[in-house]
Amino acid sequence: SRDRARAAAAWATATGSVTVKDNGTPIAVLTMTNGSVALDATAFEPGSHPLTWEYGGSDDFSTCSTSATVS
Q: Which residues is 52 bridged to in the sheet?
């Protein structure tokens, strides 16, 4: 039914915030918009940056984290 489709769509988008860490040091707390976040990497100093993204979770989504190194 139409109500079931609306409920499913409402549950499909994560909300909350993501903490970004550079080599273990928090550098940003980003608020999710439409289920995603963006970080402006142009402010980084040259060199390697081991980044960790930590999602704090919400009522509908579990916490999670992921890592990547950018240069």
A: 21, 67
Calpha distance 3→19 (Å, rounded): 34
Residue range 24-41, pLDDT digits in tens? 999 999 998 888 888 887
Secondary structure of residue 6 in the 3-state scheme:
helix
Give tens-digit pLDDT for 34-64. 888 888 878 788 888 899 999 998 888 888 8
Task: Report whether 52 contacts 21 (CB < 8 A).
Answer: yes
The strand pair at 64-70 and 49-55 is best described as antiparallel
Instruction: List strand residue ranges (DSSP E) for the chain, in order.
Output: 17-22, 25-31, 49-55, 64-70
